[in-house]
Amino acid sequence: MTGNHKNKSITRRRAIAVTGGTVAAGGLAVAGYQSAFADTTTEADASATASATSTNSGACVLMSSVTEGPYYLDGALVRKDITEGKSGVPLTLRITVQDTTDSCNPVAGAAVEIWHCDAWGYYSGYTTANPGGSAPAESEDGSTANDNTYLRGYQIANGNGVVKFETIFPGWYTPRTCHIHVRVHTGGAKEDGTYEGGKINYTGQLFFDDDAAEAIFALEPYSKHSGSYTTLDNDMVYDGGGASSGLLTLEPVHKKDPSKGYKGFITLGIDPDAESTGAGSGGGGTPPSGAPGDAPTGTPPSDAPSDSASPSSSASS
Known about the structure:
- It is a single chain.
- With 317 residues, this protein is α+β, with helices and mostly antiparallel strands.
- It is built from 5 helices and 9 strands.
- The protein has helices at residues 6-18, 33-36, 43-55, 142-145, 210-217, and strands at residues 90-99, 105-106, 111-115, 152-156, 162-168, 179-191, 194-207, 249-252, 262-270.
- It is globular and about 45 Å long.
- The two termini are 17 Å apart.
């Protein structure tokens, strides 16, 4: 299996996702997820909240691209809820995309793509990769586990440049801190349930405050994954730059009960004319042991754009 194997099995993955295929990680269920995060605000209210929160933490700053990592897959579905039944603490993400070359105007129509690991550190499509430490096996049925598409998806930005995802708080894997991968695409269009064409303007990662992460990892199902968790200060990708380096602003749904979930906000400042492969530069680590031998380790899939228009951090996962 490679990091870009759309022709082999993505059609089957789409079919499973659309028909409700799930792989439950066990522990804390996402029962009541929809009601807990019912979108009772208007679109304008949501975008205003995201913009106001991000403005206080580095809005309209050109983001530096970093590596896409070894677990990217083509053909993610355009959808708001990317959980596919995965268990974990609910996380609602509101991401605002702004044009740093044009008075910080919103980039309406931008396609924001995210992907991240589950509560035990596993990525869909790469479920045999060992997340490090001690974690339960991702699936009882290894023959079909990699056909799932959990925790991957696109959303198309509204007129205010805002997208919203419903997911779970990611787990961790050695040697990385808790993170979400993100790409911003422009110039393409929704086709066959995914996003096709255009170019990649930004490849980055979103990060979480250590205190919030550690509180989450003490809960089920996260606590079933034991081992040495990498903090922000020791991560190979996060450079300490706050929001401009991908650090999310987090708001707990219930201040005294982290299991109720979080809302995360960030503004991504991009140059819509630039292209970014997310290839990174130099070394910076290897994927967890057990990762597919032909998975990319710091280089993009072979059909990705060849030019990178923004600075890159040295990392590979």
